[in-house]
Amino acid sequence: MSGSTAARSRVTLSNAVVRFAGDSGDGMQLAGDQFTSQSAIAGNDLATLPDFPAEIRAPAGTLAGVSSFQLHFSDQDIHTPGDAPDVLVAMNPAALMKHFGALKPGGTLIVNVDAFSDRNLQKAGYESNPLEDDSLTDYQVHEVRITDLTLRALEGHVERGELNKKEAERCKNMLALGLVSWMFHRPIAETEEWLTTKFAKVPEVADANITALRAGRNYGETTEAFTYTYEVKPAKLAPGRYRNITGNQALAYGLVAAAERAGLELFYGSYPITPASDILHELAKLKHYGVATFQAEDEIAAIGSVIGAAFGGSLAVTASSGPGIALKTEAMGLAMVMELPLIVVNVQRGGPSTGLPTKTEQSDLLQVLHGRNGEAPIPTVAASSPSDCFHAAIEAARIALTYRTPVVLLSDGYLANSAEPWLLPDVADLPDLSTSFAFTTEPNGPDGGFLPYLRDERTLARPWALPGTAGLEHRIGGLEKEDGSGHISYEPENHHAMTELRHERMQRIADQLPALEVDDPSGEAEVLLLGWGSTEGPIRAACHQLRERGTPVARVHLHHLNPLPNEVDELLRSYDTVICPENNMGQLSMLLRARTLVDVRPYTRVTGQPFSAAELVDAVDAAITEGAR
Amino acid sequence: MTTNEGKLTKKDFTSDREVRWCPGCGDYAILATVQTLLADVGARPEKTVFVSGIGCSSRFPYYMDTYGIHSIHGRAPAVATGLAIARPDLDVWVITGDGDGLSIGGNHLMHALRRNVNLNILLFNNEIYGLTKGQYSPTSPLGSMHKSTPMGSLDRPVNPVALALGAEATFVARSIDTDRQHLTGVLEAAYRHRGTSFVEIYQNCNVFNDGAFIALKDPKQKDDNQIRLVEGEPITFGPEGERAVIAEDDGSMSFVDTADAGERIVVHDPHRREPTTAFALSRLSHNPTGPTPIGIFRDVDQPVYDDLLRTQVEDARAAKGPGDLGALLASGNVWDVH
User: Fold this and answer.
1) Which end of chain B is more exposed for a tag (fewer CB within 10 A), N or C?
2) Which has the closest alpha carbon to A396: A255, A211, A262?
C-alpha cells in the first residue's frame, strides 16, 4: 500500500492487495468474489487471482486444503493481481503457514484466532503457536475471534431453529468479508442484495449470511483494535459501461458473439476438464441464443461431434486443457485436412500428464503448434487478459471462417479464473463475420460438377458446401486428396503440392493480419520484452515500473502464434536485447530463435502462478547489467 | 450428382468413383442394396450423409453419390452425432466394422446407442481385420488362428447385437450381406426408425476370413441355421419349421423340437419396452456357426436426443425470448464511468 494519511485514521492509498486464505470449505473464493464486486462498484481498476487445490475437499486444516483469493485494486490502470498482499486474512494456521511468506513486510494480518487450536497448529506444521511467539512482531496482527463472533451473531438464528450450529459457523467468511469491507470503506449493500438473490429459496440462510456480514462490519467499527482504515479512490478508467468478467466467461460470450456476427448457430461439444469446464457451464445457460451444447463421452467424441457440426454448417467449438488436447490430436489433423472451420480452445494448465489441474502454465504452445502427425499447420491465437478472451474468440472465429480451417485458441488457468473490469464493447462495433464466408450453393466445376477443393485465390479457402444442397454432394476425409476434385490421391507430386498449399494458406493468413503494436514510448529502448498470452499483465506492469524509474524498455505482445506476424523478424533484429518471459521452459523463444536467428533470451518459470512484475523487472535489470559488462 | 426431381434410381446414389474392394467382397452386395433401397424409399441424395471410420467398410461413403465423411478410426459415431444434432433435417448413416466400431470405437458406439441420436449405424461384421491384412478382431471366435494369433486368440468375442441391446439401443437388427431381400427389409425398417438404429451385417471377407458365415449362407445349411425373426410369429426354424425357440424359467432361451414346444414357444415382439427378451434371443448364438437369429430384435420408440436438445433450445427461447447479445454482455453487475 502506498499513500498518504488523511484526516483522522483514514489512509488514502493508490492501490492495495488483499488476500483471503482458508480451508477449501471456508468460502474464500466467494468472499473474494464479493470483495471484487464491491471494489468494482467503488470504481477501482482491479485484477484477481483465485488459487485453489485440485481436490474438492482436501482434509480440513491441512496445507493441501488451503484455498485463496487475491485481489489487487487501484486508482490507476493495473495489469496484475499484485505481487505481495498488503492484507492477509488467514482463517486457520494452515492458511497462515502457506501464505504468510507472501505478505508485504509490515503488512496487515487478520487471523481467525478460534482456529488456532493445538491440533490445527500441528496439522499446519507449526511447532509453536506463531501468535504466541515473536514470529509476527514485524506485522500488524489482528487476532479476531471470527468463528466465535459469527456464532454469537447468529445465536438467535440457531435458537429459532433456522439453522444448526455447523451451518451458522459456515457464515464466518461473511463475517471476515464484513470486516475487510469496513477496513476499506466498502458499502456492503450490493453483497446483501447478492446474498438475498443467491439464497432466495432459503431466506433464513440469506438472512444469517447478511447478519454475519453486518456483524463483521460492526465489529470493525466498534472495536478499537483497528487504528487505520483505508480508502482507494476510483480509477480514471475510460468512460463507458463496465462489468467484471473472468476469462472463461469472456471466452463463452465471445463465442456467442462470433456466432451471432457470423449468422451461424453455435455448436459447443466438450468433455469436462479443469480449468475449461466453466465455458461449457456458461454456454449451457445460453440456449436461448441458439447455442447447442453437447457434453460428449470423451475428448475425442467432443472434437468428433464438432467436426460433424462444422460439416453441417455450425460455428463449431470444442474446448479442453492439455491432457484433453492430447486426445484430440488425431481429430485435429482430420479437421485440418478436411479444411473445416472450427475452434479448439486449450485452457492450459500445469503439465505434463495430469500435472497441476488448477494451476496456470503456458507449456502447451509446442503441443498445439506441432503435436500432430504429418505436416499439419493449424492457426493459433492466444488471449492475453481475462476480457481479451472475448476478442480472441471472435478473432479465432474470423480466421476459421475466412480460411476454412480449424483454429486453436489458447487461454490458461490464470486467465480462465481471474477477473478484471471490462469496458463493454458496442455490439454494432464487433467485427462482421458474415462477410468472411459464404456457403457454396452452385456447382463450380467446368461440367456442372462440384469441386470441393477448388480454392479462393486470395485466401486459399475451399468451398463450404452444406449437406442439403442439391448438386454439391461430395465425400471428403482424412486420406490425401487431389486438389480441386478432392478425390483420394496417392500421386507423389500431388501430396507435395497439397502440403505446400496448406503451408501457403498459413502465409496468406499472416499477410492479412493487422500490424503489430509495439509499445516503445521513448523510442530509446534497447531491450524488448516480447510476450504472448497471460503474461501481458505482468509484462506491462514491469515496463511501467522500469519506465517510472527511468529505464527505457519496449514491449510487444503476440496474439497470433501461428502464423507469426510477418514483421516479427525485423522487429526482433531492431533491439539489442529481446527477452521473452514465458510460463514454460522457453517454447516461443525457441521458435523465434529458429525463425529469426535472433538470440532471444527466455525468462522461464513454471510455478503454477503468473509472473510477478518484480521478477520481470529483475530479469530486465540483469540483462542490462550483463549487456553493459 | 443429382439435381433432378422425382423418382430416383440406384444410379442417382452411385458415385463416379471406381469401387476398390477386393473382388468377391461382401461389401459390394451391401453397397448395391443400400443404393437401391435409398432410391426406393424416396431418400434424397443431398439430404443423405454417410459417415465412416477406418477399415475396408469405411470406404463406403466414397461410392455413394451423397454427402460423406471418411473420418478417423472408431470415431464415426461421434462425428455423425455432431452432424445429426446440428442438422435434424438430414438422414445420417454410420458405416463401421467390427474393428472400427467395437474395438477402437467401442466407447463412441455405446454412447451413440444409449443417447438415441437419430442415426442409422451399419456394422459390417466380417470377424477379421481386413485393411491391416488379417489380424483377429473383437468378434473373431475364441481360438481364432490368424497372423497375430498363430496359437489361437485368447479373448472372448463381442456379440454386437447383445452389446447394442445392453446399451438399450432402440432399434437392433441383424442381417446377411448377400441376402438381398432380408437385408433390404431390415435396412428399410432401420431407415424409418427415429432414433439410433443399429444393424449388424454378417459380411464375408473372402480374402482373410472366407466362409465365416457359411452356416447361414450355404444353401445346404442355411435353412437349419437361420432363425428368422418375424414380428407376431412364433419363432421356429429348420426346413419345415421343425425347431422352435422356447423361454426357460431362468430367463434364457433354448431350442426344442417344435412339436415339444407347447406354450413355451416364444412369439416374437420387437416392440417390448424391456430389452430383456431381445437380449435372451441374442444369446442363442455366440458365433454364427449354428442356429442364429436374424431380423429385428428390438424396435421401440423413445425420445430422440437431437429432438430433445432442440426442444430445450426452443423452450429456452420461449421462456427467455431470443438472446440479445448486448444484454448478455451487460448481464450481472454493471457500472458506468463518466
Assistant:
1) C
2) A255
Average pLDDT over residues A369-391: 98
Cα angle, residue A590 at apex, residues A587 and A593 outer, rounded to 5°: 150
Cβ contact (<8 Å) for A288 and B334? no
B54 DSSP 8-state letter: S
- The architecture of the domain spanning A243-427 is 3-Layer(aba) Sandwich (3.40)
d(CA B185, CA B243): 24
Pairwise CA distance, residues B214 & B225, whole Å: 10
The type of residue at B37 is L
CA of B73, closest CA in chain A: separation in Å? 9
Cα angle, residue B136 at apex, residues B135 and B137 outer, rounded to 5°:
115
Q: What class, spelled out in words, does domain A518-628 have in CATH? A: alpha beta
Task: Concatenate the DSSP letters of all residues of A342-407 into one string.
Answer: EEEEEEE-B-STT-BTTS---TTHHHHHH-SSSS----EEE--STTHHHHHHHHHHHHHHHHT-EE
Nearest Cα to Cα of residue A377 among A401, A413, A347, A407: A407
pLDDT computed for residue B5 by the predictor: 59
- A313 to chain B: nearest residue by CA? B86
Residue type at B255? F
Which three three-digit cell numbers place residue A244?
467484471
Residue A41 to residue B334, Cβ atoms within 8 A: no
Domain ranges of chain A: 3-232, 243-427, 438-512, 518-628
Q: Do residues A606 and A350 touch, judged by C-beta distance below 8 A?
A: yes
Q: Which of A287, A307, A316 sits opposite B316 (nearest CB)?
A: A287
Task: Pick the range with the lowest mean pLDDT from A38-42, A489-493, B317-321, B323-327.
Answer: A38-42
The model's pLDDT over A309-318, given as tens digits with 9 standing for 90+, comes to 999 999 999 9
Domains and CATH numbers, chain B: 10-212+303-311 (3.40.50.970)
Mean pLDDT of A421-442: 96
Query: In CATH terms, are A243-427 and A518-628 the same topology?
Result: yes
Indicate the DSSP class of residue A464: B
Query: Do A267 and B85 count as a contact with CB atoms less than 8 A apart?
Result: yes
C-beta separation of B118 from B306 below 8 A? yes
Rounded to the nearest angstrom, the minimum Cα separation between A474 and chain B is 5
pLDDT band at A2 (very low <50, low <70, confident <90, very high): very low
DSSP-assigned states of every residue in B230-273: -TTSB-EESTTS-EEEEE-TTS-EEEEEHHHHGGGBPBP-TT-S
HEC string of A517-576? CEECCCCCCCEEEEEEHHHHHHHHHHHHHHHHCCCCCEEEEECEEECCCCCHHHHHHCCC
Cell of B200: 449388424
Sites in chain B below the pLDDT cut of 70: 1-5
Q: Tell me whether residues B71 and A477 touch, CB distance under 8 A.
A: yes
Chain center to CA of B240? 30
Cβ pair A416, A383 in contact under 8 A: no
Whole-number Å distance between alpha carbons of A527 and A546:
11
Question: Given phi > 0 = left and psi -120 to 50 = alpha, else beta, which region is A389?
Answer: alpha
DSSP B11: G
Do the chains contact at B108 and A257, CB–CB below 8 Å?
no
Cis peptide before A275 (omega within 30 of 0): yes
Instruction: Report pLDDT for A6.
Output: 36
H, E, C per residue of A144-177: ECHHHHHHHHCHHHHHCCCCCHHHHHCCHHHHHH
Pick the CATH number of A3-232 from 3.40.50.10610, 3.40.50.10420, 3.40.920.10, 3.40.50.300: 3.40.920.10
Mean pLDDT for the stretch of residues A338-360: 97
Phi, psi of B68 (to 5 degrees): -160, 150
Q: What residue of B is the nearest CA neighbor of A44?
A: B337
